Amino acid sequence: MTDDTPERIPTAGRPDAGYEAFVRLLVEHEPRMRAYLRGLLPTWPDVEEVMQNASLVAWRKFADFEKETNFAGWLLTIARFEALKHRRNVARSPLVFSDDVWESLANEAESAADSGSVRREALERCLGKLPPNQRELVLKAYAPGAHLKEIAQQAGSSEQAFYKTMQRLRAALLECISRTMAQEGLV
Amino acid sequence: MNDEQLHPLIAAWLDGRITEENSAALQDMLRTSAAARSEFRRWTQLDAALREQVDQSAEAALPKNVVPLPAPAVRFRMLGWMAAAASFIALLSLSALWLHDRQHTTARSLTSQAPEQTNTGCAILTRSTDAEFADTKGLRVGDTIRPGALRLTRGVAQIEFFSGASMILEAGASLELVSPWEAVCHTGKVTVRVPPPAQGFKLRTAGMDLVDLGTEFGVNADAGGATEVHVFEGKVEAHPENAAMQLLSTGQSLRRAEDHTLSPGNTRPEDFPSIEKLNAISSTHAKERYDSWWQHMQKAKTDPRLLACYLFRHGPDDRWDRLVENVAEPRVPSRSGGAVGVRWTEGRWPMKDALEFKSPGDRVRVNLGKDIYSAITLAAWVRVDGLDRKYNALLLTDGYDPGNPHWQIYEDGRLMFSIAYLAPADQRVNKKNNQIYFSPRVFDLTNQRRWHHVAVTYDNQSGEAVQYLDGQEISREVSPMHQPGRPIQFGPCEIGNWGLPTQGHQFPIRNFNGRIDEFLIYQAALSPTEIHELFEIGKPE
């Protein structure tokens, strides 16, 4: 983790100690929850909505959380339940996986050991290694509210070619991240 | 599983454009292959990480003064929900502030042209004696330690957390560093010293969490699950699992047995690692290393190929303090050096002298005579403290006349050996042919302020310059301008500077910043094995 502040034990008698502890934990585990939910929900708006719901539920139940046990696991369990609830309300579409596939993805993602913070550092480094125009393209594609079709047009390429490029860049980034993390002993 | 089939499907799903048919194909793969699911997870994690990255970049691009206060938290996607709850706002402004700083830091490295160097450590290895680490082999004094496992299998080590807390570990200690403020001790013995700024440092063990309220305590976690804490000085909050917090003061100890019973007692400082023990062990160890080096050098200095051998031993009868004796045998006193500006300091071991080069005028002057040679070796133990100049001198002849060798570290951390000759008559345009040999980049912030062995050999027949770092060959090259048989000549030169350039030149500043405690000059090209041996003889640990 890259947290640069102390995680102190909440002091009894200070009313906001619990809030502070909770916010810190939540902020720390936010990337993990986001990555977890992204693998379970069809679109980013779905992810955002479920994250908000899960965060609220987690706060309400925070008193039940046993300190010093695994907060990430606790949070992901809540997130999973919220994701499941959300799933019932979304319309059937090719983006929505069948129940059995969803189950195994959810099970494995919960137990898969991964650390969002370490990946992020590797990601930054690997983005830095891309040629500037390609890096630009990736960042544009992930900008909030981006429309991939428009970006493709601006880049002067066909939609198909653009999607292909994005796929190739993602694969290249993943490859670089694995290599970086292995080299740096981050895995 | 076939990535070529799988990747386009995952990408299409992520982009929200997957067809009914492809979705079925993707789900089939995910259903039947764990490897496919694992790959799917990697792609979705990347998707999330990129999203987060871009959010932060956009964030950093906002001018600071338009950030709406007092609810900066709404700028964070997830924390938006909290802004709705009024009771959170005051608190969030605070946490958002440090978040804001942190995110600026991460985003900056992405957007700026020349990214600032970053580091993800939480502690530094400050001392180690005969130490061997299980998962982090090659960890050396001065290295930054990242959060994660740290297991000491041999020796004693001291680490300093960025918070200010320091910890001494004994062989057998298995730790997990969490942050500058927190570590977990799975098994073994450690002693922690916490100065005022690090108060609140937390050490967790299997059955007990310890919060240091200042000064010193020891922890022993045995493999069976029992934990003991001993407070040598100050106060420690012990939070045993499923039991009330106990405040322990100087002289008190608390043991939590395997069966979870708690028993108070007195401290036994002798059972724990201490700074005194570390000092004793490390000075014994250093003495052994030093003695072994000294023994070997007695033989090495009689090597007939040696032109000069400077071991940087501060002579007790040198009242002026300025003599850098050439101890190569048979003795040639005229090749002894004269120290200018530099001051005597500690070398590779506490009992070893070294010269420290700091100011632009600091140097050691030597005169190696007008003899000419057909091959040379330069080998030195140096501690680079910084690369302040474009060229940072190791050994330079006063001028740069034909056949004069120059040995320096270039500003980007590459070792650089050069030697110039007049261009052949038919190509002469009033210019020298400058044969320059660069090594790969070897010095950066991670290995500065540590002792390294550097060496270069040059042979005027083959024209080959071979460079070494810590006994390993790092480059071997023949200059295209090489012509066999041209003589090499030193004459008057300087270690650590270039202060007397040929007349009419500008006065470049090339002073070395760091320490040197051994410098050998041979009139032959030593073999890789011989260079490696010099490193092995002299390595600090």
Automatic annotation (TrEMBL), chain A:
GO terms for biological process: DNA-templated transcription initiation. One of its GO terms (molecular function) is sigma factor activity. Residues 120-173 form the RNA polymerase sigma factor 70 region 4 type domain. Keywords: Sigma factor, Transcription, Transcription regulation. Pfam families: Sigma70_r2, Sigma70_r4_2. InterPro entries: RNA_pol_sigma-70-like, RNA_pol_sigma-70_dom, RNA_pol_sigma70_ECF_RHOBA, RNA_pol_sigma70_r2, RNA_pol_sigma70_r4_t2, RNA_pol_sigma_r2, RNA_pol_sigma_r3/r4-like, WH-like_DNA-bd_sf. Residues 27-91 form the RNA polymerase sigma-70 region domain. PANTHER family: RNA POLYMERASE ECF-TYPE SIGMA FACTO, RNA POLYMERASE SIGMA FACTOR. NCBIfam families: Sig-70_gvs1, sigma70-ECF. Belongs to the sigma-70 factor family. ECF subfamily. This is RNA polymerase, sigma-24 subunit, ECF subfamily. It comes from Chthoniobacter flavus Ellin428.
TrEMBL record, chain B:
Keywords: Disulfide bond, Membrane, Signal, Transmembrane. SMART domains: LamGL (SM00560). Residues 374-529 form the LamG-like jellyroll fold domain. Transmembrane segments: none annotated. GO terms for molecular function: sigma factor antagonist activity. It comes from the Bacteria. This is Putative transmembrane anti-sigma factor. It comes from Chthoniobacter flavus Ellin428. The lineage of its organism: Bacteria, Pseudomonadati, Verrucomicrobiota, Spartobacteria, Chthoniobacterales.
